[in-house]
Amino acid sequence: MNKSRFSIPLYAILIPLLPAAQIYSSNVSRLTLTHGLLSAAAMLALFLVPLFVLRAIFRRAELTDLLWASLFSLVFLPMCFLPLEEPFFRVYWTLGWTIAILVIAFWRESRRFIPIFLTTMPALLIAPLLYADVTSPIWQQRPVLRDQFQHAFDETPKPTSDAAEKPDIYYLIFDRYARADQLARVYGYDNSAFIAGLRQRGFYVADNSYSNYQRTTHSIVSSLNFDYLDRLDTKEAANAEDWVPLYEMMGDFRIGRFLKEVGYELHFSGSWWEPTRRIPIADVHHNFYEMPELLRVVYEYSLLVDIARLAGWRQGDPLWWQCQRSRLMFGELGKAAAGNQPMFYYAHFLIPHPPYVTDETGRCMEIDEALGRSRIQNYTGQMTYTNDEILAAVDRILARPGPRAIIILQADEGPWPEQFASNEIIALGRDAGLVDWFEASADELREKTAILNALYMPKAPAEIFSPDMTPVNTFRHVLKHYFNVSIEPLPDRSLIFESAENLYHFKDVTENLRGP
Q: Which residue segments constitute the domains of the chain, with CATH numbers given?
């Protein structure tokens, strides 16, 4: 074997590792080490496979290696150096690397010093990232939190008798779907026709419902485990900023385990967000345009997306994927079948959640069109589209044969107040800035926590429903009234955590929200 043919320069490892290392290091509190290693391996493969193909075709490794490394840097490294929303800088970036590629191709002497640059540049950037990762307190905190969180909830009581029937259950989360009064107050949007449509179909709509927490992760973990997260507020968790143990709780939860034990098949329809892209507990996934999040971010901020947009190739645009994903997720509702088994269908819709890519008719908007509309127009446009699709999906579900299904329509949180919101059109998956929620006003808290909460629960006693009911009790009612489980509702509370730097210290703001 010709050793030189298969040996690689150091920059062939460092350059593809740089974007994965930068994203992982910036999100070490949100990604597992496995995510980081698998993404690094994928980036290495993306670099090395074409490298060896080019070597085999041209048989000039000293030239093809440098040209491929420069082209790869041009396409995949802008996110490491440039402001992500400034196309002006990307033009100069492209011009600079194009000149470098021409120099390598036509000036032989450059092949002596350019490898030094291509090695030194990523090495100087990766070294501090690796040091920060290795010395992060996360590695000491995470095992302790994981161990504590295993005991966050009690075991679910066993049924006192078999259920008379086992209806399909649809648990549909519409992220950042605001309650009707907040839609009117903040956005000037009249949602009464949609609410009336739900009531005509037999839904109870809780007109004064709030989320139990102000962020998606805490809210979903609480509702799927039908309990509060009080046991997470410990001395060991004080000042912790590690999201991973919470994310892991989103993939394995009490209502899912209970339903699978009594014969249900668990279907899950996920989003682009990694914690709800796929979940371990699901038997069947209904996923569309999915990609591991770290790799998605690398792709999203590469020049490949700029090229796709300039060429009008929408299939290469992650914002178009989001528009199509919502459409396909809605289309799947009411069609999935579990054969002879009852089905628990759980879906996390990132709509009307940003990015604002869908207009009121369901058409996928171009970026310039969305940027030309106001925030209110974009949010309410996606709201109108979501309403139409919900009612159509509900009609399909109710038309299915067999026992009438249980249908739960809930938001996990409301939209961000405008003064706290980040870019809601171009940025896919970028979080809003740090907010000290303990200092937020009552109106800001209401906007963030007042949510849609609509329940279709045939045969459930009317007295369980109340305008103030919250998601923490939803599955308690399902367990008690459909599965003969001796379990009682909890007091309806709304809690907040201070910021992303202190995830597990909660403050009860129930009275603030329900006050004048």
A: 3-136 (no CATH), 165-490 (3.40.720.10)
